[in-house]
Amino acid sequence: MLLPLKMKHISKFTFSILLVLLSFLSSAQEKNITQKDTIKKDSMAPKKERYGLRVGVDLFKLTRSFYEKDYRGLELVGDYRLTRRHYLAAEIGNENKTVDDDRVNFTTKGTYIKAGFDYNAYQNWGNMENMIYVGMRYGVSSFSQTLNSYKIYNPYPYFGEATEISSGEKFNGLSAQWIEVVAGVKAQVFNNFYVGFSFRINRLMSQKKPDTFDNLYIPGFNRTYNGNFGVGFNYTVSYFLPLYKQTVKAKKTEKKK
Amino acid sequence: MKRIFTLLLLTLLFSGCEKDDICTEDTTPRLVLEFYDISNPANLKNVVNLKVKGEGALPNVDLGTFNAESKIKLPLNPTTNSVKYSLILNSTSPSANEDFLEFNYATQTVYVSRACGYKTIYQLNAVDGVVQTNAAIPDVSWMKNITIQTNAITTENETHIKIYF
After folding, report:
1. Angle at A102 between CA A214 and CA A1, to 5 degrees
2. Residue A155's closest chain B neighbor by CA?
3. Could you report the per-residue pLDDT of B114-139, keeping only the tens digit for each?
4. Inter-chain residue contact A101 with B114, CB threshold 8 Å
5. Is the interface score ipTM higher than 0.90?
6. In chain A, N or C terminus with fewer CB closer than 10 Å?
7. What CATH code would you report for A2-34+48-247?
8. What backbone torsions phi and psi does residue A30 show, to the nearest 5 degrees?
9. Integer Cα distance of B64 and B70 in angstroms
10. Nearest to B15 among A102, A104, A229 (CB)
């Protein structure tokens, strides 16, 4: 029991650091607005920004695998800076989760990939390379489900209460596709290392269900509700591999001259 | 950005509150019997003090006595393929008349939802779906005619068996 508790504390600690960072970001943004005019007037050296690939791992899934007995999961994340504000982004992961509900107990195993883009809405100040972003993903998951046990719902148990029936029936070759809307933050904590978190709202587009069961959990999509909506969250640590630098375009001022 | 975040948070909150943990769907159905007048088969006829008891039922559960009703619902047993009911008409008077009905069926398990789990639906046997027998001390059966309306017992919204007396 000690280890999981420690883990929780660690993630709590890092999370609060992140929150503090976030508040710095927003205050920095305000400063930026007031300083814009002075920057324009000054003849500063052209600003260079770094472009490259950022790869990382979802700590939320990783730590959860340690403290939650019924969960194993790993998610790798990556993004590539295309333009000043646009990033190609993707997540790839694997999950193994056993859900114990009142009436059904099942295990879902599978792999997923999500690809899309992020748009950095944050105006960085100086040489900062932080992100407050919104984005979209298209997710695809391939998985199997094992129905471990179930109960029959009988509102009139005149001849005896329903008992749990163990099944073990496995449904293979299931799949699902969905769209995610992402909003998140990435902050550089020290040289080339970033921490970030993101919230996701998912909408299921299509799925292949088992004949005699339902996709109550989809790897990557998470728990499904009665509608087609789902929610997600990740908390990442990533490393930035700089590939090249590009000068921030000063085209507008050149034309004026 | 702030607006987007608020929206996201709100959506998160509401999606967490979705009530799909309470079973509201139709689940395992009971057998629906409807009583008709034998002398005027198009008309419903109310039963009088009809006492109903299933063999092998839990001792602490009582289906009770039906009075001034023309439709009754009887639970079947999802774990067996046969259930026998005793139906006593005029159970409170000395002229009480007991008849037995045995229902023979096949069961099928069907998935409903996360909250309900699975349900059982029944299929009455084509040959011996309903078998009527008389009381231990034979008298005149009060049920004159029994017809199966549908062999598939999937919902309580329809009549499965019509009994004429």
Report:
1. 110
2. B28
3. 889 999 999 999 999 999 988 777 78
4. yes
5. no
6. C
7. 2.40.160.20
8. -60, -45
9. 15
10. A229
